Amino acid sequence: MSAYLDHFGLRNEPFSKEIEDDKLWLPESKRGIVSELVDCVQERRHGVVTGEPGVGKTCVLRALRHALGASQAFRLTYCHNVTLGRRDFYRHLCHCLGVTYGATAGDVFLSVSRHVEELSRERAHPVFLVDEAHLLHQDTLDHLHILLNYSWDSRSLLSLILIGLPDLDERLSMRRNRSLHSRLHYRLSIEPLSPDDTAEYIRTRLSAAGANKELFTSDAIAIMHEAASGSLRDIDRVAHKALRATARKKRKLVERDVVQAILQSETFHAGAP
User: Fold this and answer.
1) Both 164 and 186 in a single domain?
2) How would you label 67-91 residue by residue, b for 16+ Cβ within 10 Å and e otherwise?
3) In CATH, what number is assigned to the domain containing residue 131?
4) I want to staple 167 with a disulfide (CB 3.0 to 4.6 A). Which of 59, 85, 134, 273 is the partner?
5) pTM of the predicted model, to two decimals?
6) Which residue among 140, 167, 190 closes a domain?
7) Is the predicted pLDDT of residue 270 greater than 60, yes or no?
8) Which of 57, 11, 2 is nearest to 233 (CA)?
9) Would 23 be classed as within a structural domain?
């Protein structure tokens, strides 16, 4: 066991990203987005989810996976390597689906669309989750709406969910992308955590790791929240460092001065030549 875990009587790393889907903490705002996405998939529609870095976009997707459970009615495929041209994007999608494909761009696209049609005959609805979608090449965006077109655009055989930074909304609103944008019925935005959310998140993660009392002062949490701008990823990083630093000082409570020292150190190293 790590020395700082033993110092605080914790069973495991409280701010590790290695956490089961059913143990994820989500504030009410994000639970609402998960519910919207469940509706989107069940209605066989398409959607887009945007948010700043670290606000929990992938956590929302994991919560969606958990909410849909082990049902064979839906087949989720997660695709995150999107910095590719159109043909290679579809090749990557084939790899994710476990589908063989031919050499030409037409062959690769046909492999994906035939797989979707086969799942439909099996009464399974595929859901393509495309993460980091703000990085999609324009030639891929130009073509994605064609992937959604089956039987003369009269049947909805799959759901496409695009996830990315707010830049994605700007790109989709461009005139050349309106064929795709008009098909995205669910347009959702993930907001940063509120101060109360941050405090609840820290308490929840610590409790799950075995803490039976408060380990952070309210002042320490407040400046962490302000510095992280509500980003879960940044809160995890700073909270982890603060626990270790506090254990080295042989204190039992993380206080404001420890968090400030960490933030100042990170600012110094970020500005170093």
Assistant:
1) yes
2) ebeeeeebbbebbeebebebbbbbb
3) 3.40.50.300
4) 134
5) 0.89
6) 190
7) no
8) 57
9) no
